[in-house]
Specification:
With 565 residues, the chain is mainly α. The chain is 59% helix and 5% strand.
Amino acid sequence: MKNTYFPLHWFFLIVVLVLVMALPFADKPFHIDDAFVLKITDNILQNPFDPFAGDFDWFGHETPIWKTTTNPPFISYFLAPFAARFGYSEIALHCAMMTFLLLIAWSMVVLSHRFAGGSIYPLLFVLFSPAVMVSGNVMRDIPAAGLAMAAVALFIMGTDREKRLFLFLGSIAAGLAIVTKYSAAIVVPVLLIYPLFKRKFWVWLWIAPALLVLLAWCIQNIALYDQIHLVYLTMHRPGDSGVGWIDKTCGALVVLGSMIYLLPAMIWSEAKRRRWIVFMGCLPVGLALFWGIQRRFDWDADGEYLLWALTGGLLLYLCLAEGMRRGVRYWKQEESEYAGDSLFLFAWLCAPILFSILFVPFQAVRHQILALPPLMLLGWRAVYRAHKEGWLLKVLVGVLFAMQATVGYMTAAVDYQHASAYPYFAKYAKEKYASPDHQTWFVGHWGWKYYAEREGFRMRHAGGELPEPGDIVLWPLRVHYGDCWSDLHDGSAFRILESAPLEEIELMSPIPLRVQNFYGASFYALTGENIPYRFFHDYDLETLKVYRVKNYNRQDVLNGERRSS
């Protein structure tokens, strides 16, 4: 399977597939962490050397951006020229972000030709995974994944062909991935492992450009802020979110199982090729996972959670079997390059999964995007030979891809509709409630913050000015609003708001699936029994409640600490 050359028509195919996948959602309103990225982009346009200038409210109170953001600013530097030329146009910025989707697609083609016989399926399953389709915002996750995958592909090409230009470009791509998202640093050990298996230790020297890119960012930090941002995050930012490693492990299984639909084909392939030990092992592994998950949730885990957690666990089990097949003999005797490649892919697969469990405060789909390429490549290596020989397996793989792509489009469409609530609500509220006779306030972050501020509404900050009687407060239900009322006695907003809202505006969707309603579906942050998407439609996508501020006694509503100050 060692071949990193592919015909030129693949480049045309890559562009077509990315356009088919991304263009329908190119005008998606800004969503989730987009508002933070755009704020840093605006800082760069004001002063390119000070991306973290000023304060930002992301938790309900204003804090310095330096202390609030958990990632470096490369993606904001990338977007700045487009914002300068086209303004903060959703279409322009999303089209710019397609650059990284093209990197993901190109990398998957290179890696498929190197490890999976040149099959198109690794490309299709990864590109049309809900993880990639829904994450196409202007956040850092897709850029970091695209750059990291390109780094791996280029490093492999450079190592195999002993081409220093490819090694240099791969290392630069790795460095840019790290200054896009710090967690992309897991690509560095991945790059070092491949030449280790090939016994080409001199290649390790070519990791230096990646480290120099990170060093340049650290020097900028010291020069401007007198401290290294990454060191500050490590030493001073609280890292404990209250989510334990067991929950994060279960969340990782749920994400992997619900993002790649290859498991039935892998099980079929094991039976067809008479790998009976691995095939029969699926039963005890599945039962052990079922028992462990049910015990974790007091024997009350729901069906969809169990489905995806068991699917993810069995996927990892079969990938482990594929990765370790003949692995010990290879390590001792260098018996087979095929076995060494499988060991490398399994090591790559473990890196993002373990990092997200051990070091990330909570589990999320975006934390596992970099695990999808090795997962799919290992899965396809397990299926490849049986797929070539049997038409029934070919039909099954085609059906599985069609199912996954359908769910990918559904999740992307529902997330698009959810994001569309923000500009719709902001425009509606301005037309109906904005008046020179009173101030219109809002609570909540994410994309809603961007559009509410664009319409001239004022954000409520903890410790800031209180709304006056008669003012209007806009309150979406399905956005994070942090501790914005924490300075009121008992933290209750209804000490100053009328108990009944003036109006409730619901946005529904006919698509029977939800991705971010906090009733079990939470694509961007998995906790408890949340899963990335759920197949129901009886919950609204988003609801805006409009309140009027009542007459209140200012001293009565403020907490004791503020009264004493």
